[in-house]
Write a structure and sequence with these properties.
globular, single chain, Alpha-Beta Plaits, alpha+beta
Length: 94
């Protein structure tokens, strides 16, 4: 499996709109995704996206649908997300 971990700096008052925007679709090849609000009230939101393969991840990243979703997401962010892409080497969903 392949994917990304990302940090989102949300504009004040935009969190609910961002969450609605992010709930709209599940890209082809995506296995799971999560968004966390850390206990530290001043921390960025942290997300994890898991795809079945690197090819599926890249195909999604290059799709017009994902570009549109990203453009809409950026309306609610103060800055571009910080992305860390890579291969997941172990995991478990209970």
């Amino acid at each position: 499996m392949y994917g990304t971990i990302f940090n989102l700096v949300v504009k004040p008052g935009h969190e609910q709109n961002l969450l609605q925007t992010m709930r709209r679709s599940t890209p082809k090849g995506m296995v799971a995704w999560f968004l966390m609000r850390p206990d530290d009230d001043n921390a960025d939101l942290i997300g994890v996206a898991v795809f079945e393969s690197k090819d599926a991840y890249i195909a999604n990243a290059n799709s017009p649908e994902q570009h549109e979703a990203f453009t809409q997401m950026m309306n609610h962010l103060s800055s571009e997300p910080i992305w860390t892409d890579g291969t997941y080497v172990i995991g478990n969903i209970a």
